[in-house]
Amino acid sequence: IFLPAYSPDLNLIEEAFSCVKYHLRRHSEHYVNSVTPEADLLQACLVSVTPEKAHGWYRHSGYL
Predict the structure, then answer these.
(1) Which of 9, 14, 40, 62 lies 20 to 30 Å from 20, alpha-carbon distance?
(2) Rounded (5°) CA angle 15-22-16
């Protein structure tokens, strides 16, 4: 697979980062005053990246 030097629309990790950032923005009031360890915070964010979303990102990028 050939990717140009920087092509965020073809780079699937950019879609995952976008999903995680959206989750953080949507639930920011919960995390701002929380004493939750960073590992728990990361786990909560990664739950927002579902297999269905990943499959959609693959289809959208043209890999499937």
Answers:
(1) 62
(2) 20
Please tell me the distance from the alpha carbon of residue 26 to that of residue 47, in angstroms, as a whole number.
14
* DSSP 8-state secondary structure symbol assigned to residue 3: -
Q: Report d(CA 52, CA 55) in Å as an integer.
A: 5
Residue that wins the pLDDT comparison between 27 and 54: 54
For the chain, give the number of residues.
64
pLDDT above 70: residue 12: yes
Do 30 and 5 meet the contact criterion of CB atoms below 8 Å apart?
no
